[in-house]
Amino acid sequence: MTQPLKVVVVGNGMVGYKFCEKLLTKAGGGSFSITVIGEEPRPAYDRVHLSAYFSGTSAEELSMAPASWYLDNGIRLLTGECVTQINPQARVVVTHTGLQIPYDKLILATGSSAFVPAVAGVEKEGVFVYRTIEDLDAIIAYAKNANRAAVIGGGLLGLEAAKAALDLGLETQVVEFAPRLMPRQLDTAGADMLKSKMEQLGIGIHLNKNTAFFDGDVAVKGLSFTDQSYLEADMVIISAGIRPRDELAKQAGLAVGPRGGIIVDDALTTSDAHIHAIGECALYQNMIYGLVAPGYEMADIVATNLVSGQIDKTFKPFDMSTKLKLIGVDVASFGEPFCEHIPHNTLVIEDKLKGIYKRLNVSTDGKYLLGGILVGEADNYNMLLQMTKNQMILPPSPEDLILAPRKGEATAGAGISALPDSASVCSCENITKGTICDAIESQNLADVAAIKKCTKAGTGCGGCVPMLSDLLTETLKKQGKTIKKVICEHFDYSRQELYHLIKMSETRTFEEVLTAHGKGCGCEVCKPAVASMLASIYNEVIAKQAVIQDTNDRYLANIQRGGTYSVVPRVPGGEITPDQLIALGVVAKKYDLYCKITGGQRVDLFGARVEQLPLIWEELIEVGFESGHAYGKALRTVKSCVGSTWCRFGVQDAVGYAIRIENRYKGIRAPHKLKSAVSGCTRECAEAQSKDFGIIATEKGWNLYLCGNGGIKPQHAVLFASDLDDETCIKYIDRFLMFYIKTAEPLQRTATWFNKLEGGLKYLRDVIINDSLGICHELEKEMAYLIDTYHDEWRVAVETPEIRSRFTHFVNSEEADPSLQFVEMRTQKRPADW
Amino acid sequence: MTNKNITWFKAAPIAAFPENGGACVKYHDKQIAVFHFKQLDKWYATDNECPHKHQMILSRGMIGDQQGHPKVACPFHKKTFSLETGLNLQGEDYCINVYPVKIEEGFVFIGV
To answer: Over pLDDT 70: what percentage of chain A?
Structure first.
């Protein structure tokens, strides 16, 4: 039997890890014995998303694979071990602890270190580089006693570091040697736009600055520039570029470039045939590739060639297009962003108001895209990159590619279907459109998560994920499959269809519905969806089918961090008596609950343990409170301004009407939450136009606005009808709500529902005012049923022993959850961080 | 599970657990989520802690199946785990421990 080939990998960064992964997959086990030596104390982690460490992502979550992965795959992993010498003649590497490890093939994936400019005073306290988790820990510790950070470097890495400094609450200044930010990716106009965006966010930008020395005694206190200017800073983060780690190679006599980097050929072989270099330490055609995608490509090439034993694959100059979000600002640069020596025409859109700059470089015949720059908005980046890479013919008016689509129009330009199969969709893993579409078809992939798992596309930087979703829809469409939105794998119906079927078949429990209309056992998607439909149709006590409710509905309270719940009693219209306020305070105090006034004019009491909920509600019910349904996809509040009863501008009794509306629709369950408001005059203090249904008083009656919302994508409600009297307004709302409840998709707010409603506002008016479908009588009848069957869920829960007994943490102990932990904050409590 | 000494812990009577749902059992310092998957006529036990944000919560999660494979979804961020193997079904790295369950004389026993 032949001995397995001894492969030694020096460096356990992203590229080193990727190499191991690729070699294992390609070799199928057995033929290699792999040793990985990394000097950092932990296995490889995702350095691209290092900044996420500041916003709470743990080192564990950043990890590429746990130590056990190496063990499970028979890889010998040495962390915290530093290679000090390579002996190419004897083919042995030596580590700082004296280990001698022989190799047949040596892979140098030593990466790079932060480039530290030779500036006097660089050794002072408070001067850091931004490279490893250890660097970050040191920065976080020092930042506790610092106020003002200067970041050296206005490139990609520098701005990443600036974001980190900003996240740490420091006043942040960026210092750049070049006359503009991101000089490698952006032109002057693009960089100017980025600069003003950064300045708006409170980051100071100093260009054309050459640091002469770092000022301070022991600790740094400022930067002195060669133009005699001075910048105060009690902390400095250097993130001005990288320097390839080639010292080992150099000492072993391998050829290195004059400005660093281990020289490699097309097969990533160094000047010694048994040694390869990959990633940021490799110098290919005088170029260091400081991005993860080319590093992965190099790993793939070496692994492929090692397995086949010959040179099957070679490296080619790599596309350096990038897209990233810098402190909330999209920035992208692709193909030839500058076109300095290539004949071309430029197409530029600049919107200083919105902070958007887009530039396309088009070939002189107008047919092809050569490259471009996007700042402020980069939604079309993937498509533009593909058009560039694949030499796709441009549409007749290429400006449509970078103009925001006007409402109602589809995005212009070639769709994803126009891409050739050879187009690389995921450049990190180098996976083509063809591979992805084949996988979707042959393995019946149904969602993006499955595509990621099966093809690995989208698992690197994640930039191509929106494209994966488009590819999925496109491929399924081609197969003639479900364009119909089915609820999930258990129900092959849209919500509207299933709603109708449940009504027709008079099925009343989840099991009955599943047996009659579905398959399998159900899941976390269809269970609450069916629960919501059953509630909208029959309005029975939801706690009777507790296990199909989302956790908030199961415990009739809102789950919060740590696993405690919050309690929100209903306060119709926001009107509350002093006695009720006192009662709330008494209960809150007794159970030590954190108190906060909500946006919907009520009081939220946080931190209740599950077994305390019935006790708390018993006391609240005693003083006349009812469930506020803050936990349900149901009517939340009807907010009001004080209206004509007190306000000198008011023209109608807004509070009185709000109370009437809230009491009418309370407890009604819908596909999503419902919010409402009533304003007493045109000044609109109750913000009714941001609600699912909002009412604004006029001299003659009420104006009714429908289908607005706040949230992720705020949208104003549209004026549906004017000057309505009390009863007509309510009649329209009855019909509208019921129509929405019956036809929306699961978890679709009224605004989204309205946007997808064919025929729009005119159609909605036709249905509800003119009864064009002849369903208004039925809608009113169904609404009347829901109103008549209203019950206070909490009263039922407290009074029904069988329901009440479920409110415990353990089934075999009376004890409260011992894992709950609170800390004090502004004299109240809050859960300890997760 | 083979040849390992299993200690059977008597948790609670069957009726203490909701059908097609979960409940939490205390075993010394441990919290174990127990699920009565009645549709499959099976019982499952797992850690109560969701490894994503380390919350003691899985017993309050909804159960169901993915292509016939039984699973539980964490109420916090809808991370789903196999009730058979404990693996995360969305392809993420963390997983949960699963424990054997047996029913004897109307009581639920958990192998710890």
So the answer is: 97
Residues A184 and A125 in one domain: yes
Tell me, what DSSP letter sits at residue A144?
T
Higher pLDDT residue, A697 or A382?
Answer: A697
Q: Check if B105 contacts A (Cβ < 8 Å).
A: no
The two tokens of residue A273 are 């045939």
The 10 Å Cβ neighbour count of residue A695 is: 28
Tell me whether residues B56 and A819 touch, CB distance under 8 A.
yes
Asked if A811 lies within 8 A of B24 by C-beta distance, the reply is yes
Structure tokens given for A334: 């692709």
Same domain, A155 and A106: no
Q: Does the CB of A830 have a partner CB in chain B at under 8 Å? A: no
Tokens standing for residue A427? 């450049």
| CATH (domain of A725) | 3.30.413.10
What does the pLDDT look like over A738-757, one tens digit per residue? Answer: 999 999 988 899 998 998 88
Number of domains in chain A: 3
Adjacent-strand bridge partners of A345: A362
B62/A547 CB distance under 8 A = yes
| A240, A265, A295 - which closes a domain | A240
Domain annotation covers residue A555 = no
pLDDT at A600 over 90: yes
Query: What range does the domain containing A207 cover?
Result: 116-240
* Measured distance CA(A322)–CA(A823) in Å, rounded: 42
Question: What is the secondary structure of A748-783 as a DSSP string?
Answer: --HHHHHHH-TTHHHHHHHHHTS-TTS-HHHHHHHH
The CA distance from A353 to the nearest CA of chain B, in Å, is 37
* B positions 18-77 inside 8 Å of A (CB): 18-26, 29, 31, 34, 37, 39-40, 49, 53-57, 60-68, 70-71, 73, 75-76
A799: helix, strand or coil = helix
ipTM greater than cut 0.85:
yes
Could A521 and B65 be called an inter-chain contact, meaning their C-beta atoms sit closer than 8 Å?
yes
Backbone dihedral angles phi then psi of residue A347, each to the nearest 5 degrees: -125, 120
User: Among residues A186, A221, A240, which one ends one of the domains?
Assistant: A240
- Domain-wise residue ranges, chain B: 8-111
The chain B residue lying nearest A547, using CA atoms, is B21
What would the pLDDT profile of A66-125 be if each residue is shown by its tens digit?
A: 888 898 888 999 999 999 999 999 999 999 999 999 999 999 999 998 888 888 999 999
CATH number at residue A185: 3.50.50.60
Nearest C-alpha in B relative to A805: B16
Calculate the CA dihedral of residues A769, A770, A776, A779 and round it to 10 degrees. -40
CATH class given for the domain over B8-111: mainly beta
Same domain, A39 and A64: yes
